Amino acid sequence: MLLEITYKIIAFTIRIILRLNGGFHIINVENIPKEGGVILAPNHISYLDPPVVGSAVPRKANFMAKKGLFDIPVLGKIIRGAAYPVDRDKPNPSTIKETVKRLKKGEPVVMFPEGQRNITGELMESKRGISMVVAMSRVPVVPVFIAGSDKALPANAKWLKRAKISVVFGKPIYYNPQSLDGENKRRQDLHEEFGSKIMAAIQKMKNEYEDNSS
Fold it and tell me: What tens digit of pLDDT does each residue of 36-48 get?
């Protein structure tokens, strides 16, 4: 209960800071299931993205975080309530198991399909990890498009710059163990196909957002 209250206070504080810093718009949040496990899959353009998404989601979300962050005084204690460690230098199957465990417990988990921050702004291909987790947990994936976080916290910036940030939530996508074209395919091919479907949904949201903003 204390962790839940602390999480909500931090999320509320982040929303206030972002609104005062240029504007914070949360769009189609009703697309997030109100209960049950769900993966939130955003594009990744800034180190600011995790707190941006976490503050926009009405439910307490879980995050993967670099192992070393948990050793930093104060920060380690703050993120421990909403994150679990991952060693990016030596990926461990236990990380996937922990993710699946949390999803099956009915918790939301934020996973960046691209696997890393993309400073070009153009979407990259999805890594296989997210599709593997979906195949094991069978939870829906809500694609998420983030705009403006790269302007609020550009690469190498030490502090926030004034910018409007928007977070758009798409319709849930469900994993189908059968190929989209009806053919029998290897599990790896199915994972790649589903990852492409997630990225296509984010790309569509990006195009629509940019069209409406122009």
Answer: 999 999 999 999 9
Indicate the burial class of 37 (C-beta count within 10 angstroms; 0-12, 13-18, 19 or more): buried
Q: Rounded CA gap, 6 and 88, in Å?
A: 28
**Angle CA 34–36–37, to nearest 5:** 120
Cα–Cα distance for residue pair 49/83, rounded to 1 Å:
14
Q: Which domains does the chain have, with CATH numbers?
A: 2-213 (3.40.1130.10)
How far apart, in Å, are the Cα atoms of 148 and each of 136, 161, 166, 191? 33, 10, 7, 30
The SS3 call for residue 85 is strand
Q: How far is CA 172 from CA 129, 187, 192, in A?
A: 18, 22, 18
0.85 exceeded by pTM: yes
Contacts of 5 (CB under 8 A, 6+ apart): none
- Give the helix, strand, coil percentages of the chain, each rounded to 5: 45, 15, 40
Alpha carbons within 13 A on the beta-carbon side of 212: 10
